[in-house]
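Q: Convert this sequence to structure tokens.
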Amino acid sequence: MSQLLRIVAFIICGVFLHTIVNAQVNADGTIDTGDKFENAKLEYLDSAEVVAKRLEWWNDARFGMFIHWGLYAQDGCFWKGQDGRSEHMMRNLQIPISEYEKIAKEFDPEKFDADEWAQIAKDAGMKYMVITSKHHDGFAMFNSPSNDYNIVKQTPWKRDPIKELNEACKKQGIKFGVYYSLGRDWHHPQCNSKGGRRSNVWDFPEEEKKDYSIYFKEKVKPQITELITKYKPAIIWFDTPELITKEQSTELLGLIRKLDPNCIVNQRVGNKLGDYAVREQKIPKGGEPQPWETCMTISEIWGYHKEDHAWKSADSLVHSLVDIASKGGNFLLNVGPTGEGIIRQPSVELLKEMGEWLKVNGEAVYGTTSSPIGKFDWGRCTKKVENGNTTLYFSVFNWPENGELFIPGIKNEIKNSTLLATGTQVKAFATDNGIKIELPNVAANKLASVVKIQVYGIVK
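A:
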């Protein structure tokens, strides 16, 4: 093997191993989400009308901020000089509970500013926020009366960021939600997983003696009750249902509905239940027959890793947002703040670029429905229907060299055609096979330019 081939092989192997560690990849290449029913059709316990009403604001929102923040951020996913590789560092390095708890004694994010975080989300054009209230390490990032292993009781900081962020989001008109790790808790001796693959077997090795129902009763139900009654989140975003039974998922959902019937719950409550489906780090090729959301990182790792600088580009993020909206989904984009409580500047700058694009072109995203005509090599389409007429938004990623676009299959009479960014009229002609659009030589926006076509009648 030549030196060049050795280098290439080493890089490929390293990338593959890094992906396995941080994305939890199964043997077949899929991401291990801990949800054995991940691709199954959801089963609703409420009527379709009730679910649709609950999701009304969420369907219009299209874009939200995901935040992974916890003790693992203290030294950027490093522990005693060892690279923990991700927010799963407690498991990756098999850090004993007695040692991991010591990190809390150092956690003092004095630069945290809830108003600043909410403002960053607002400036990005995000309509909702979801933050980790308890990740797999079992540490609560809120003041939990039922469990002292929390940020107020265990850290010198002694503040409740969930409370502060909830209040800050209200000021900005942003819906607030909380993430909760349901089937993985490395601090609780009774939380188990299939074959012990995702549970704490270094502190609690007798996996076969563990009883999930004890953990469910002692920790899950009390903390979910606290989160809803104390903070009234618009969303409970569960993760990794693992071994939760259908009866337990139903019981948990019933508890939430009793406390707040308007609280939205994602599918990872387990066993095909929940209001909407989750697609992690991927965008489906086609649309989905049910409400769905793609959650994705802005760099590579969910939590803050001090050596993670693999930032996605602004154009790829805008294209992902539009692609998702064109298929009827939502985009939950993740940032991982530092142990000091700072959202890193590259994240802020990328989000600001997205927000600037949305200030001008947000009409093509918010409140839209999926494309009636599929996708194009040059871009995507979203749709709105009002008063019996249809508005089509064509987000052009690759500006045509010949200045022409052709939209097949639409035979509706054209009412108006403009560039959304400027309001400039563009020529659009109805032909026997569709609509022909003549564009200026230069794109209106470097990230994506939107052509707004209004037609009479409904485009199906």
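The mean pLDDT is 94.
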